[in-house]
Write a structure and sequence with these properties.
With 463 residues, this protein is α+β, with helices and mostly antiparallel strands. It has helices at 4-13, 22-37, 44-50, 59-66, 77-83, 142-145, 171-183, 186-203, 222-225, 265-270, 345-354, 357-367, 379-404, 428-441, 455-462; strands spanning 92-102, 112-115, 126-139, 150-158, 211-215, 232-237, 244-247, 258-263, 277-283, 286-299, 308-314, 318-319, 328-329, 333-337. The mean pLDDT is 89.
């Protein structure tokens, strides 16, 4: 068993193909480690304080993100390669979702006014920030270690949104704005990112394995369901009133594709003639039995065209907020799978239930990693620095798997007494605390990077 620092440095050395020269790689590796060791806001100036460089020229650290010729997408190639040994033997499960990070300033690239996702349902608020599209690989550990899947980010790209014209804009400008919104929709950008991820997995030696992608309801549309790809299968949540039908088998009209009788997912759920089936999925720290209905093949004429889909309806799951409270029921889920036979129903359901882990990624990236703490203004830096911070988070998660495995062992700091029974796997704060403890016990390990971390000094700087 190695240390978390050694595993993290080993992953950083795989970035040699990303950066143009060794000097840039060393500086980027130093900034990556400093970003994880830093406490408080992750400003570039504070990273320099962690590296004991507050009295020297700091312009070179900013030029890594503003001038150096490298691509943010290449940062995640080592994460894709390192995740394959933990991805099991079946389809490679992915989760995709968008996130919004607050970022003000009139001159900041891609900063737009959008709806605040934390708004209450009775009043819509607005926030100014940048939208990002993230894909994470879901590493299954339920069968082997009885813990939830671990989500590792492998793609983090900003969503390109055109600027909305003002009140004095002409009709031609408004038409151009509508055209750009249609061409740069979130679904189209997500599908292009998926194709790029497919090529990276092929280059890593996983061309024979399917990509099973769990998506939220915002991606269950024509842009994602209409394209055809033989090694990408989507599992997305659909509307309960989506208009579906069966393929037509009319001998009188052999050229007819769609059956005349249509139905909705909600009508299938209420149809007592279709029996419920049961299977087991892992969520909520244990294996649970869920009920579902399955209809195949179905056609979604509006969004999927002639592509044959599979409809899975998950019954509401009862839950209690505490043992003494009454039982409540969540809403049913209506899932559409873009393939009939490539994956089993249990695999599709498990992938969708594990999709929640990407929400854990979003929380960790904003609260602990400092996704948009650095106040950079260069157009390239605005795009590349958040991806750099997410790549550092991805490397940290993979380094913990390589060093200590997916479960929480005695190698980590002892948790509080009220958490000892529930914490089966380490959290992001556990990993950051372990990395800082190793830096305190063996600071000379960072000498090849050009600095020696002083944890007490880092805490004083953060205070």
């Amino acid at each position: 068993m190695g240390t978390l620092t050694d595993a993290l440095l080993g992953l950083c050395q795989r970035l040699s193909d990303c950066f143009p020269q060794q000097r840039t790689l060393d500086r980027a590796t130093s900034l990556l480690l400093a970003g994880l060791l830093c406490c408080g806001r992750k400003w570039v100036t504070r990273l320099n304080c962690v590296r004991n460089r507050e009295q020297v020229d700091w312009s070179g650290d900013y030029r890594v993100f503003s001038r150096s010729p490298w691509k943010a997408a290449d940062l995640f190639v080592p994460a894709i390669e390192a995740s394959l040994p933990f991805s099991g033997t079946g389809p490679i499960r992915l989760a995709g979702d968008e996130t919004r990070a607050r970022r003000g300033g009139r001159k900041v690239k891609r900063s737009r006014w959008t709806r605040d996702p934390l708004s209450p349902p009775f009043h819509t608020n607005f926030m100014k920030g940048i939208r990002f599209m993230q894909f994470s690989v879901l590493l299954p550990f339920a069968t082997s270690h009885n813990v939830a899947a671990r989500s590792i980010p492998i793609s983090f790209e900003p969503v390109d949104q055109p600027a909305k014209p003002g009140r004095k804009a002409t009709e031609e400008q408004r038409a151009e704005y509508r055209r750009l919104c249609k061409e740069n929709s979130l679904g189209k950008q997500a599908w292009s990112h998926l194709l790029a991820i497919r090529q990276k997995f092929d280059a890593a030696g996983a061309s024979h394995r399917l990509l099973l992608v769990g998506l939220d309801g915002g991606f269950c549309n024509r842009a994602c369901f209409r394209p055809i790809h033989d090694r990408i299968v989507l599992v997305a949540r659909a509307r309960k009133d989506a208009l579906l039908c069966h393929p037509a088998n009319d001998p009188v009209h052999p050229a007819r594709v769609y059956a005349t009788d249509t139905f909705t997912p909600e009508s299938i759920r209420q149809d007592d003639a279709r029996p419920w089936q049961t299977t087991s999925v892992f969520f909520g720290a244990q294996w649970r039995e869920i009920r579902f209905k399955e209809v195949t093949p179905v056609l979604w004429r509006h969004s999927a065209g002639r592509k044959r889909l599979r409809l899975i309806i998950v019954a509401p799951v009862p839950y209690q907020l505490s043992p003494g409270m009454p039982r409540y029921y969540r809403d049913p889920a209506y899932l559409l799978v873009t393939d009939e036979t490539a994956v089993s129903t249990q695999e599709a359901l498990q992938c969708y239930f594990d999709r929640w882990q990407i929400e854990v990624n979003h929380r960790d990236e904003k609260q602990h990693i400092g996704l948009v703490d650095a106040q950079v203004w260069n157009d390239k830096s605005v795009d590349r620095l958040p991806a750099f911070m997410v790549a550092a988070y991805s490397f940290l998660m993979l380094a913990s798997l390589q060093a200590f495995g997916p479960t929480r062992t005695d190698a980590y700091l002892q948790p509080p007494r009220w958490q000892r029974r529930r914490r089966r796997r380490p959290s992001c704060l556990d990993l950051l605390s372990k990395l800082r403890q190793e830096a305190h016990d063996n600071p000379t390990r960072y000498e090849p990077l050009g600095f020696t971390p002083d944890i007490e000094r880092i805490l004083f700087r953060a205070a």
